[in-house]
């Protein structure tokens, strides 16, 4: 088969369009009200990321996820593996917040807050500083390897790599004390895991924000694929006003036309798009709702003396001239669930006890006879100190008259270091006259001996003496 | 899904099939990596990596980091197998299947 015939084969055309070669996107820089907000989001979010590990709280790094010790420090709060429920709740809240905001305002997350967007934005800034604006970048890439090109590309790579390494270092600083880590790096005595994660995360940042960019959103992100499930006709989307803009035309054709549309076909909206799409083709899943095209078009409209808003945040209903409702079953349900979860989280966090306890009844016997008047039930008591200081606990039993707790320890209190789980054999004695039913319900309370008197209790079964 | 060959040009077919194959491997690797990260998070929130060393029938001395790494590798490997299996089963043969007579 000749080469000519090969490229003209209809099958091939279809296949090639299915897997089109990746074209590099050169987003044009743009200023405007939405780009200002995005810039602000970048500064706030990345500021938090890079600054937080350096803050100390008491004697501890304010935020430290100590994985080998299995405890998370968050501003004076210490979370243990037993507090997994909080992590789970937090993740569920995050998921519902994402659903809620997506239903309300579309891909807010993608455009403003996603780490992929945020770091890509910074990498594009660095690219602009070193390689110049869009036209210069395109020309530089096409041109031969001159001294200037090497210098510009070299300095871009230097900035990118430095920034990526700093990112990797900060990331590891959330899991290992960052000041010690800085010392280790200074003396080049990092452990194997610190080294691995530092370079791994640096590489991931460099690759994702430097090269993959919009491809992460297009091919790798699961949210991009299922976000349409949260969309309806009242969700905010970025859209081109086709009725107003068409027929688009420019130059001589425009001057001679009787009724040109408002779109002057300057393609600014395409040039600023970080994912390289044409918003005038309609809503596309590639669109991350960064609103760069709105800012670009508004500027052009202003210069051409036409009203702004040819590309704008709108809803499908608004485009069809129907009213838009912010409050609708979808948003209300998401909101109710979200509020419920946040309340549950707040309440359970506020009531979180620094003591974790568990009582297990001995499996071998219901009760044992101690003497003519007394019986005892045997249990295993587990007490965990979830606080940050060593604590001494007293154990009490209530629910029947004259209950006596005997611990299998020299002194009748339980001492636990922070994070320690103490397992103690425990006997609870009662007189035969009082414990005369087959089963009684009693309560065991573990309380801090110190002034705070913090306590927690558990209801357990007590097997009585019944003839 | 079509059971026709992609194109009658064999070279082109092979190139495309290779491309599709590597693309699928990439997807399976990425998806299983993502899921393994979530699985590890949940698993290690409930279990101390130190226990992993005690589970085996012979003594293994694992540091916490080694425990985490081992757990993650385990999850990644098994999720990879699950995703790979799904990928293989989802992909129908691209060439024409044997000609069959319709059941009468």
Note down, in words, how this protein is organized:
The complex is a heterodimer of chains A (467) and B (104). Chain A has 2 domains: 330 residues, no CATH class; 109 residues, Immunoglobulin-like, CATH 2.60.40. In chain A, 45% of the residues lie in helices and 19% in strands. Chain A contains 18 helices and 16 strands. In chain A, strands 8, 9, 10, 12 and 14 form a 5-stranded antiparallel β-sheet that branches. The longest helix of chain A has 27 residues. The two termini of chain B are 25 Å apart. Chain B has one domain. Helices cover 68% and strands 0% of the residues of chain B. Chains A and B meet through α2 of A and α1 and α3 of B.
Percent strand of chain A? 15-25%
* N-end to C-end Cα span of chain A: 100 Å
Oligomeric assembly = heterodimer
- Percent helix among the residues of chain B? 55-70%
Number of domains of chain A: 2
Residue stretches of chain A low in confidence (pLDDT < 50, at least 5 long) are 1-18
**Intertermini distance of chain B:** 25 Å
Largest interface: A-B, 16 and 19 residues
Q: Tally of extended strands of chain A?
A: 16
Shape of chain A: elongated
Computed CA radius of gyration of chain B, to the nearest angstrom: 21 Å
Overall 3D shape of chain B: elongated
In short:
The complex is a heterodimer of chains A (467) and B (104). With 467 residues, chain A is α+β, with helices and mostly antiparallel strands.
């Amino acid at each position: 088969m000749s080469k000519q015939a090969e490229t003209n084969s209809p099958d091939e055309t279809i296949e090639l369009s299915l897997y089109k070669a990746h074209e590099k996107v050169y987003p044009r820089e743009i200023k405007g009200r939405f780009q200002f907000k995005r810039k602000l989001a970048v500064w706030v979010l990345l500021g938090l990321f890079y600054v937080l590990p350096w803050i100390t709280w008491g004697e501890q790094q304010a935020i430290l996820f100590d994985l080998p010790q299995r405890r998370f420090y968050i501003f004076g709060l210490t979370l243990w593996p037993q507090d997994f429920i909080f992590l789970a709740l937090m993740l569920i809240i995050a998921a519902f917040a994402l659903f809620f905001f997506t239903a309300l305002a579309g891909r807010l997350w993608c455009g403003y807050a996603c780490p992929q967007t945020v770091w890509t934005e910074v990498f594009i800034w660095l690219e602009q500083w070193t390689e110049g604006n869009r036209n210069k970048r395109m020309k530089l890439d096409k041109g031969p390897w001159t001294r200037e090109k090497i210098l510009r590309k070299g300095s871009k790579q230097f900035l990118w790599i430095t920034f990526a390494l700093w990112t990797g270092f900060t990331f590891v600083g959330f899991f290992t004390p960052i000041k010690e880590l800085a010392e280790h790096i200074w003396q080049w005595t990092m452990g194997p895991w610190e080294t691995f994660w530092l370079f791994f995360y640096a590489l991931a940042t460099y690759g994702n924000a430097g090269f993959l960019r919009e491809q992460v959103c297009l091919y790798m992100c699961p949210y991009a694929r299922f976000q349409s499930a949260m969309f309806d006709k009242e969700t905010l989307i970025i859209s081109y006003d086709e009725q107003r803009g068409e027929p688009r035309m420019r130059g001589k054709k425009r001057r001679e036309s009787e009724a040109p549309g408002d779109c002057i076909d300057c393609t600014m909206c395409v040039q600023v798009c970080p994912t390289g799409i044409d918003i005038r083709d309609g809503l596309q899943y590639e669109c991350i709702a960064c609103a760069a095209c709105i800012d670009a078009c508004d500027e052009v409209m202003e210069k051409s003396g036409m009203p702004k808003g040819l590309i704008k945040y709108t809803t499908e209903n608004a485009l069809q001239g129907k009213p838009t409702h912010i409050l609708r079953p979808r948003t209300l349900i998401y909101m109710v669930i979200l509020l419920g979860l946040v309340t549950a989280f707040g309440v359970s966090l506020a009531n979180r006890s620094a003591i974790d306890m568990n009582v297990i009844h001995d499996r071998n016997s219901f009760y044992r006879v101690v003497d003519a008047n007394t019986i005892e039930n045997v249990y295993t008591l587990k007490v965990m100190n979830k606080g940050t200081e060593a604590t001494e606990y007293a154990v009490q039993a209530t629910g029947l008259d004259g209950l006596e707790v005997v611990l299998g320890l020299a002194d009748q209190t339980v001492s636990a270091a922070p994070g320690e789980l103490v397992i103690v054999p425990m006997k609870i004695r009662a007189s035969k006259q009082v414990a005369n039913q087959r089963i009684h319900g009693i309560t065991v309370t573990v309380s801090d001996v110190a002034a705070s008197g913090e306590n927690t209790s558990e209801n357990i079964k007590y097997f009585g003496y019944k003839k | 899904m079509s059971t026709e060959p992609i194109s009658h040009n064999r070279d082109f077919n092979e190139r495309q099939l290779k491309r599709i194959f590597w693309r699928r491997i990439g997807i399976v690797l990425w998806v299983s990596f993502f899921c393994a990260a979530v699985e590890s998070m949940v698993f290690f929130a409930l279990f101390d990596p130190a226990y992993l060393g005690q589970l085996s029938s012979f003594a293994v001395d694992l540091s916490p980091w080694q425990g985490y790494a081992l757990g993650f590798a385990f999850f990644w490997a098994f999720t990879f197998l699950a995703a790979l299996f799904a990928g293989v089963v989802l992909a129908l043969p691209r060439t024409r299947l044997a000609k069959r007579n319709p059941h009468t």
